[in-house]
Amino acid sequence: MTDWVQALIAEGGYLGVFLLMFGETIFPPIPSEVIMSMAGLQAAKGTMSLTGAILVGSAGAMLGNIAWYLAARGLGMERLRPLIERHGRWLTMDWAEVDRGERWFMRHGYLFVCIGRMLPTLRSLISIPAGLMRMRFLPFCLWSSIGTVGWSAMLGTGGWVLGTRFAEMEAWLGLASTLLLIALGAWYLWRVLTWRPRT
Fold it and tell me: Where does the record place the VTT domain (predicted)?
């Protein structure tokens, strides 16, 4: 995967970074850790500016974030309820938990969105609860942008600083993403096995 990402960034420049980060947000298995590290490496070689790479990468990711937000908002809580009631065990929640989550999100949602954008794997999924809970669009974009730019800047700057050692950073971040996925899978399995609907 690294080779074709590197080739697309080298040949496509800013547009390549934009498209890759948009695709990474829509389809999370494409790793932003590789994309922005490669963009930082290209900036170190002088083929693009680091600031430009960070901005276009963030713009591509934000376009994907908005797409997920609008899709979830279009689904809405009203359409979600029959799914929860019919498939509660596999979704590991009942409507009482959704109500509680909605109240929590109303109080802490903006911070949740901002910090969530800087967490591997989860960063692409944060738009879904924001859309379902109908978070206001402009604050969603503002707080998402802050977190997204922070994540892109960290990875891009890391690739720029490390130069040809970007593979080391990719390995560490890839390990973190893998461990997080394993933890999430174990947590989900535990939720399924222990889930009981509230009466």
Answer: 30-156
| Contact (CB, 8 A) for 117 and 150 | yes
Burial class (CB in 10 A: 0-12, 13-18, 19+), 82: exposed
The one-digit pLDDT tens for each residue of the chain (199 residues) are 566 777 888 888 999 999 999 998 887 667 788 889 889 988 888 889 999 999 999 999 999 999 999 998 888 777 766 766 676 565 556 556 666 766 777 777 788 888 888 877 677 778 888 888 888 899 999 999 999 999 999 989 988 887 656 556 566 666 666 776 687 778 777 766 776 666 5
Cβ distance 132 to 73 under 8 Å? yes
Helix (H) / strand (E) containing 107 = helix 95-116
Q: Are 120 and 180 in contact (CB under 8 A)?
A: yes
Q: Locate 50 and state its tokens.
A: 């680091």
Tokens of 44: 């170190």
Residue whose structure tokens are 């590197």? 6
